[in-house]
């Protein structure tokens, strides 16, 4: 145990020696950390390699920039995880860390690959967020990204910036083990109890590692801010679109209900009898024998038909546009949340530096020793080694989220484990019977078309006995409208059934 502070110079030297020898965790404390690290890294490696395999397979069947960006992101995650996995073992053996069998060169190498790959993953996350933003907000397609060289720029910048940022640090020996998180390699001075200057520290060879850490953290922070800003804009765009669609549907529903109530009036019987032929009048399909006049239609019936068509169009736009925007926004937010898990831990370790402050008469070794006696700090070690390397594993759940939803809709009885196994095997998702019914209702049906046409002819014959209506406008040609007749009739029938 350490002696009293009120001691002789010899006792003070003995205390300092004791602090230096015991400022590392004992092996029995390091073993759980190593085990947790190996488990988390193994899961992350499985997740990253699975995403790379699936993205490669998807890109071969249908080339897509998003798949290639995800492949690059997963590759950077894989390199980061591998460096993190071997980091405790490649630390310098001379520092007395448990299970460390490396040297200064191995520490420099693993630190460089770890920091460079982490920065590359940071930039790939940023470019992926920008991609989602352009898809949702600007409605960009593959040709837009290709014409502007988006993919080439993303990969070039993601490789060059980490090299320019961390090669000087590797040359000057900036990458060393961290006194806060044992066996973790980052920009740090060595030995731990030096004052982070060239006079008292063996490493770095030149320069102050604290200044270099700020230089490395500046672009990292800037790219992270851009990533979060783009993700927020994606969320806001999807939210605004959804609210507008919801407001439009409410207005349409209110107007239609009022119109329907008006149509229930007995005075509108003649208008209802002429209802189906009104559509033909609006399309210009029903002409007089000379082709010069058309008949006016009831405003209430016309309004009902217009609202029906609008609701049909609104439903189509919601299923194809709004749903896609919401899915893209959800994916962007989830990728950003996973990235936040990776981002927060290095900043936490950097903020908890244990160097003695100005005016503190304690030595660096004493500060570090007292720091490691706190049980909360040991819990921080466990959480750090558990969650930091999980980005690849968590990204895999985000990447397969939509496929899992489609599998559950296609086969509700399939277990979760079996669904993930089928996804990994690349088994195509079967079309459920419910989807078949929905798609059959959405597609043009010749039988339904013939029935609708017979009803219109019957109503047209009944209408001939009614009083002739005044003309609405001059006639026009029907050229090109007959080609739309099938689809228009089907859409109208579906809309009328849902009123």
CATH class of the domain at 24-243 and 327-399: Mainly Alpha
**Strand tally, please?**
2
Structural class: mainly alpha
State the helical fraction: over 70%
CATH topology of the domain at 24-243 and 327-399, which one? Rhopdopsin 7-helix transmembrane proteins
The residue-averaged pLDDT reads: 72
Largest sheet at a glance? Answer: 2 strands, antiparallel
Strand content: under 5%
Overall form? elongated
What is the H level of CATH, i.e. the homologous superfamily of the domain at 24-243 and 327-399? Rhodopsin 7-helix transmembrane proteins
* CATH architecture grouping of the domain at 24-243 and 327-399: Up-down Bundle
Identify low-pLDDT runs: 1-6, 266-297, 433-445, 466-499
Keywords: Membrane, Transmembrane, Transmembrane helix
Subcellular location: Membrane
GO molecular function: G protein-coupled receptor activity
Main location: membrane
Q: What attributes characterize this protein structure?
A:
mainly alpha; 2 strands; two-stranded antiparallel sheet; Rhopdopsin 7-helix transmembrane proteins; disordered C terminus; 70% helix; 499 residues
Describe the secondary-structure layout:
Layout: H1 9-22, H2 27-61, H3 65-90, H4 104-137, H5 142-147, H6 150-171, E1 175-177, E2 185-187, H7 209-263, H8 269-273, H9 275-283, H10 299-351, H11 364-372, H12 375-387, H13 391-399, H14 401-410, H15 416-425, H16 433-442, H17 446-463, H18 485-497
Antiparallel strand pairs: 1-2
Helix pairs in contact: 1-11, 2-3, 2-12, 2-13, 3-4, 4-6, 4-7, 4-10, 7-10, 10-13, 10-18, 14-15, 17-18
């Amino acid at each position: 145990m350490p002696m009293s502070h009120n001691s002789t110079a010899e006792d003070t030297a003995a205390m300092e020696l004791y602090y230096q020898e015991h400022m590392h965790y004992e092996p029995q404390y390091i073993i759980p950390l190593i085990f947790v690290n190996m488990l988390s890294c193994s899961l992350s490696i499985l997740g990253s390699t699975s995403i790379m395999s699936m993205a490669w397979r998807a890109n071969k069947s249908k080339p897509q920039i998003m798949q290639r960006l995800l492949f690059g992101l997963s590759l950077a995650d894989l390199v980061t995880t591998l460096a993190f996995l071997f980091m405790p073992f490649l630390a310098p053996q001379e520092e007395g860390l448990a299970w460390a069998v490396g040297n200064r060169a191995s520490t420099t190498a693993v630190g460089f690959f770890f920091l460079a790959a982490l920065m590359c993953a940071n930039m790939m996350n940023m470019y992926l967020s920008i991609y989602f933003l352009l898809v949702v907000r600007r409605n960009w397609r593959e040709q837009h990204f290709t014409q502007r060289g988006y993919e080439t720029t993303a990969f070039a910048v993601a490789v060059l910036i980490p090299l320019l940022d961390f090669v000087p640090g590797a040359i000057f020996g900036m990458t060393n083990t961290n006194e806060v998180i044992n066996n973790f390699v980052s920009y740090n001075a060595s030995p731990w109890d030096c004052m982070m200057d060239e006079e008292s520290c063996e490493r770095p060879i030149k320069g102050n590692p604290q200044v270099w850490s700020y230089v490395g953290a500046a672009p990292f922070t800037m790219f992270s801010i851009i990533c979060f800003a783009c993700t927020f804009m994606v969320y806001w765009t999807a939210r605004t679109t959804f609210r507008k669609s919801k407001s439009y549907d409410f207005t349409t529903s209110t107007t239609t209900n009022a119109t329907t109530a008006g149509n229930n009036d007995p005075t509108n019987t003649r208008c209802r009898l002429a209802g189906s032929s009104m559509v033909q009048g609006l399309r210009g399909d029903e002409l007089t024998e000379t082709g010069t006049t058309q008949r006016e239609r009831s405003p209430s019936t016309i309004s009902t038909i217009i609202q029906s068509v609008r609701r049909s169009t609104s439903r189509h736009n919601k299923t194809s546009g709004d749903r896609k925007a919401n899915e893209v926004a959800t994916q962007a937010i989830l990728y950003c949340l996973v990235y936040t898990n990776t981002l927060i831990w290095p900043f936490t370790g950097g903020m908890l530096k244990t160097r003695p402050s100005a005016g503190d008469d304690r030595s660096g070794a004493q500060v570090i020793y007292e720091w490691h006696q706190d049980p909360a700090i040991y819990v921080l070690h466990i959480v750090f080694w558990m969650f930091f390397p999980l980005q690849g594993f968590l990204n895999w759940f985000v990447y397969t989220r939509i496929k899992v939803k489609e599998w559950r809709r296609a086969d509700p009885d399939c277990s979760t484990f079996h669904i993930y196994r089928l996804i990994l095997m690349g088994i195509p998702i079967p079309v459920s019977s419910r989807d078949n019914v929905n798609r059959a209702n959405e597609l043009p049906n010749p039988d339904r078309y013939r029935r609708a046409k017979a009803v219109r002819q019957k109503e047209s014959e009944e209408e001939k006995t009614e009083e002739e209506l005044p003309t609405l406008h001059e006639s026009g040609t029907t050229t090109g409208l007959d080609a739309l007749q099938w689809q228009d009739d089907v859409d109208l029938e579906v809309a009328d059934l849902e009123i």
